[in-house]
Amino acid sequence: MKYRKLGSTGMNVSVIGLGTWQFGGEWGKDFTQVEVDAMLDKAGELGINLIDTAECYGDHLSEKFIGGYLARRKREDWIVATKFGHHFQGHLQREQLWRAEDVLKQLDDSLRALQTEYIDLYQFHSGTDEQFDNDKLWSMLDRQKQAGKIRHLGVSISASGSGVHQTSAAADVQAEAIQVVYNRLDRQPEEEILPLCIEHKLGVLARVPLASGYLSGKYKPDAVFGQGDVRANHKEDVRQKQLRAVAEIATNEVPSGLDMAQWALAWCLQHPAVTSVIPGCKNIEQVISNASAADLDMVKDTTQ
């Protein structure tokens, strides 16, 4: 495994992290604690130390699985990132909660679910610029940092917004990391977000690095996703366009004999702004495959 410093946090994070939206039950599979433990054990064995979750991946369900694991392991071995701003109400349904008092409750609920006394990276989760510009919210979060409940703050940019304002203003609210959708099929962050992150010395977590699995190389243009899978909600024309683009990338860009998913993760990590990628996983085999991307020559360790 290779490691990089996450912005100005001083934390050395593995270039391959572990995304855990799937543990909340919205990706076509329900998990058990035994399955989650096995995947996290394998991740730790392979040098992965970064777990990314959220309050609304299930009703703190993903966090509860992670907490069940952390309660029986060395907490200091892991960098835990979670988020705030929403409450799970059902499959792909969320209630917006941005008042300072609501977020404080979410924070305490997350700490209980994670069975930990502190969160390493607490991230504003896909809110609007208006919701972001809330002095009472950030003042409350600063007090929680002083109290030791939060070590560092971050901003997870909404996939539906530009993110320029929040990235530019991150330092003003003491946020030190940006999470953004970035992959070979979605390069928009290269235009403004990633250059701003370099300018402001912000760490970058690239989420959806496999483009919701399209860049795994497993799906053909006629692929069908079952009920309960997030991808089943993607518009048919968009899904087909994505799959055709993937086929072209596989033919023209991925070196012969190289696993496409590993190539796609390493491709993200080539950008000088990107600190870590946080792909999801449904089994131990995917954890192993994802971690192997760190071994590719195109991935550099920048902790030195």
Automatic annotation (TrEMBL):
Oxidoreductase is among the record's keywords: yes
Keyword Oxidoreductase: yes
InterPro entries xref list: AKR_Detox_Biosynth, NAD(P)_OxRdtase_dom_sf, NADP_OxRdtase_dom
A Pfam family the protein falls into: Aldo_ket_red
UniProt-recorded Gene Ontology molecular function terms: oxidoreductase activity
EC numbers for this chain: 1.1.1.-
Ranges of residues in domain NADP-dependent oxidoreductase: 16-300
Keywords for the protein's UniProt record, in alphabetical order: Oxidoreductase
UniProt-recorded name of the protein: Aldo-keto reductase IolS
CDD domains xref list: AKR_AKR11C1
